[in-house]
Design goal:
The complex is a heterodimer of chains A (664) and B (174). Helices cover 61% and strands 3% of the residues of chain A. In chain A, the strands form 2 sheets. A 3-stranded antiparallel β-sheet of chain A has the order 1-3-2, with no helix packed on it. In chain A, strands 4-5 form a two-stranded antiparallel sheet. Chain A contains 21 helices and 5 strands. Chain B is 76% helix and 0% strand. Chain B has 5 helices and no strands. The chains are: A mainly alpha (664), B mainly alpha (174).
């Protein structure tokens, strides 16, 4: 099997390079090779395979399901709060319960739902869209998932004990200091955030390397789908932003438990240092939870408009620009903290700038619908509603970038309305659209269209009834984070409307989960490409086999499946059934970072229990820190170290990779 | 690994930012008793920098097939790194202030402590690599482990220069 075949004469890599040594090109795949591929890539049977799987498709779907579980929990928390606020002077909840509810609602939705759900989709879709057999580091991928689950449990175990974080998802100091907030609540927050940060960081590193090294030959950077740009940008931002919040949390933990003076004004510390560090992380993070979702719209919407996305390059550049500007405007969360006015003016102006790249994406989507031939499918409705909600959320965002308005509106329900329009509008609506769009690929079954219209109607209607009036409440001066309000303040009727809207919205989501279940059980078969999509994931069966692609395809354009209608006959076409056949064990192809020239045959690791063990070993480490039991923590650290040695233990099969070329 | 280094590197950027922020907002003198002495820090810094050279020497010896020399250079690296740890410990023990005294003492111990933790992790990794090498598990051709560990060690050493400049040099500028 080591003979080297020539590549097809009419297919050209961006800069033509010779094939990788020992990698055979195949045009007709022998059944024997497919059998061997399946054998190499299938997981072990039983529990070992279930816990040990490193298959990006399984990890991606588990990510999505887990994130939906947290969405449900966070949603129930929101509904309980809405019931409390439905009428004035209500006493369903006491203030402390309300504090814990809104804190856990924020932490859950932002950290345990919004980013993980996008990681789930990216995990599932990346290798399929890039024409690869897996992510660059499959075991790291599994680790990222298990860390997410274990740290989520760590955060939530505190809830039934009445010790859940109770100072908001931003946890401002000195409210969060031991003096004002004794008890373990904030320590759970600090340690949980550090714990969860590890998961996000390792996942992000995996995405960056996967993009650079795991694309199909010929898929240069200007041929990858936009969601790849979105997740890449978000991942790079995560790597640079997460240490800020981890550090802030570590310093707060020291302040609270050991009496250091990072934030304590008495010993020369600065409470505002918390806000700086938190928003240096928090602001880019806002974009990290929307850019991949915007990528889903950019890739999904054109399929239902039956034409390529307008302005691909501009949209890709706008994605990156948004994040670059996003790193520079953290101060606009701190307009009301008494900073020097020159700094405020500068950051206010910079915040306006961010409207430009956002507008580019919006105009590109509108132009795509305008010039396409749209089908009114359920994903189309969801993707289109993203545009509308994004515009409303964007406009209220521009309003709060203005200093004078922000001083009036900050900490009122106007901000609550704005952030829900942005986060639910761009994240959740895009995600539900994406589920309808990619569910057939994941399961091989279609979701019910008529039920889908009902889901859309309830969600879209309920959402606007719930959150549009909140703008009014904010303008009238209703503060956020208060557990009740007086009957004479005039907020009663509007709040009742908001609560009715919230319940309707929740009903839509409930129906959505039900329709997923129904489709899983009895949806009609989908076939490989039910929407007539142009990208690589639609070229293989639904659901895809464990090895994804029998041969690693050769790519010649941005829309490999639409080339018959977009390209002239004499232009080079992609080869999807003809490419590198790598079937000597679990292996895939690595390419050069920029041009995607074939470079190296990568030996991939099989299923492994180590990611689960490593994640669980961090539980005594963080638990020991929480309970201030050093020996408990040390035992966890020692176990983690031992597992890491096993992780990096020299493996004769994996070592083969470095004979071709190694990368770090 | 480069991604890990990026994220760990930025952690130090935020730590140094915190140091600068606390210093800039301080009402009285931030550093008690003037700039810290270089008597221990300078030799410790030299030991750490030399250890980077020996780590590189070890990697290159292995690449050229000289496993024995590579192991020797690796042992030298570990000894030099350990010297740095011991000297840092001595410096800590001689400080007239404790972790919880002031904002300066808190950020001083956190910044040097975070770096020291990275040095210890690096030493553990170097130790495992040496053990695997002596045990015949990592042979001359096995480049991956050596490259990873050496890269991490260079990172730990390079970042020390920034920590050193922040703690020891910046107070001398005013």
């Amino acid at each position: 099997m080591s003979t080297t075949l020539d590549r097809p004469a009419d297919w050209k890599a961006p800069q033509d390079a010779g094939p990788v040594d020992g990698a055979p090109l195949a045009s007709v795949i022998p059944a024997e090779a497919e059998r061997r591929l399946a054998e190499a890539w299938e997981d072990s049977p039983g529990l070992r395979g279930w816990f040990g799987t490193v298959d990006h498709k399984k990890i991606g779907i588990r990510y999505i399901i887990t994130a939906f579980v947290f969405l449900t929990i966070g949603g129930v928390e929101a509904l309980v709060m809405r019931l409390q606020l439905a009428q004035p002077n209500n006493n369903l909840l006491n203030p402390e319960q309300y504090n814990q509810l809104f804190s856990m609602h924020g932490v859950t939705m932002i950290f345990l739902y919004a980013l993980p759900i996008l990681s789930g989709f990216s995990n599932y879709l990346w290798p399929l869209m890039l024409g690869s057999r897996d992510m660059a580091y499959p075991r790291l991928n599994a680790l990222s998932f298990w860390l997410y689950v274990v740290s989520g449990i760590f955060l939530y175990v505190s809830f039934p004990l009445g010790a859940a974080p109770n100072d908001g998802w931003f946890n401002y100091v000195p409210n969060g200091s031991a003096e004002y907030d004794p008890g373990p609540n904030i320590d759970v927050y600090c340690l949980g955030m550090i714990f969860l940060g590890i998961s996000t960081a390792v996942g992000s590193a995996n995405f960056v390397v996967t993009l650079l090294r795991m694309r199909a030959p010929g898929m240069s950077l200007n041929r990858v789908p936009i969601i790849i740009w979105g997740t890449l940008t978000a991942s790079a931002a995560n790597l640079l932003a997460i240490p800020a919040v981890s550090l802030a949390c570590l310093m707060l933990w020291f302040d609270r438990n050991f009496g250091t003076h990072f934030y304590d004004i008495g010993g020369g510390g600065q409470p505002l240092l918390w806000q700086h560090l938190f928003w240096m992380f928090g602001h880019p993070w806002v974009y990290a939870v929307v850019l991949p979702a915007m990528g889903m719209v950019s890739d999904g919407l054109p399929v239902h408009c039956r034409r390529p996305l307008v302005g691909y390059t501009l949209v890709a550049m706008a994605t990156v620009t948004t994040m670059v500007v996003g790193f520079g405007v953290w101060l606009h969360h701190m307009f009301a903290t008494g900073l020097p006015s020159l700094a405020l003016s500068f950051f206010s102006a910079a915040s306006f700038v961010i409207a430009i790249p956002s507008a580019i994406s919006v105009f590109a989507w509108i132009a795509t619908i305008w010039t396409g031939r749209a089908r009114l499918t359920v994903p189309f409705l969801f993707f289109t509603s993203v545009i509308l909600l994004f515009v409303i959320g964007g406009v209220s965002g521009v309003m709060t970038a203005s200093l004078a308005l922000d001083w009036q509106l900050t900490d009122t329900y106007f901000i609550v309305a704005h952030l829900h329009y942005v986060l639910i509008g761009i994240n959740l609506f895009a995600v539900v659209g994406a589920v309808y769009h990619w569910f057939p690929k994941m399961t091989g079954r279609m979701m019910n269209e008529r039920l889908g219209y009902w889901v859309f109607g309830l969600m879209f209607g309920g959402f606007n009834v719930a959150f549009l009036p909140m703008h009014l409440l904010g303008l009238e001066g209703m503060p956020r984070r208060v557990y009740t309000y007086g009957a004479d303040m005039g907020f009663g009727t509007t709040n009742l409307v908001v609560t009715v809207g919230a319940i309707t919205f929740a009903g839509g989501i409930g129906l959505f989960f039900l329709s997923i279940l129904l489709a899983r059980l009895s949806g009609r078969p989908a076939g490989p490409n039910p929407w007539d999509g142009p990208s690589l994931e639609w070229s293989i069966p639904s659901p895809p086999p464990a090895y994804n692609f029998a041969v690693i395809p050769l790519i010649a354009s941005r829309h490999p499946l639409w080339e018959d209608r977009l390209l002239a006959e004499d232009q080079p076409h992609s080869r999807l059934a003809e490419g590198y056949l790598l079937d000597e064990g679990k292996e895939t192809l690595g390419v050069t970072p920029l041009d995607a020239e074939p470079d190296v045959i990568l030996k991939m690791p099989g299923d492994s229990i180590l990611p689960v063990l490593l994640s669980v070993s961090l539980l005594p480490l963080f638990g020991g820190m929480l309970l201030l039991k050093p020996w408990f923590a040390a035992a966890g650290a020692a176990a983690a170290f031992a597992i890491l040695i096993a992780w990096f233990w020299p493996h004769p099969v994996l070592q083969r990779e470095e004979q071709a070329r190694m990368y770090v | 690994m480069l991604c890990l280094i990026a994220t760990e590197g930025i952690l130090f950027v935020y730590l140094i930012f915190s140091y600068g922020y606390l210093a800039s907002q301080s009402r009285g003198p931030f550093v008690p008793d003037g700039a810290p002495s270089l008597d221990i820090a300078l030799p410790a810094t030299i030991a750490l920098l030399v250890s980077s050279a020996t780590a590189e020497w070890s990697k290159r010896s292995a690449r050229s097939g000289n496993l024995a020399r590579s192991q020797l250079a690796l042992a030298c690296t570990i000894v030099l790194g350990a010297i740095f740890v011991v000297m840092s410990g001595i410096e800590w023990a001689h400080k007239p202030f404790a972790f919880t005294d002031t904002a300066y003492s808190s950020i001083y111990f956190l910044l040097t402590g975070t770096h020291l933790t990275h040095v210890l992790v690096g030493l553990l990794a170097l130790g495992v690599l040496l053990a695997l090498s002596l045990g015949g598990r990592v042979k001359a051709g096995h480049d991956q482990h050596r490259t990873l560990v050496t890269l991490y060690w260079h990172f730990v050493d390079a970042i020390w220069l920034f920590v050193f400049a922040t703690i020891y040099l910046s107070p001398r500028l005013t």
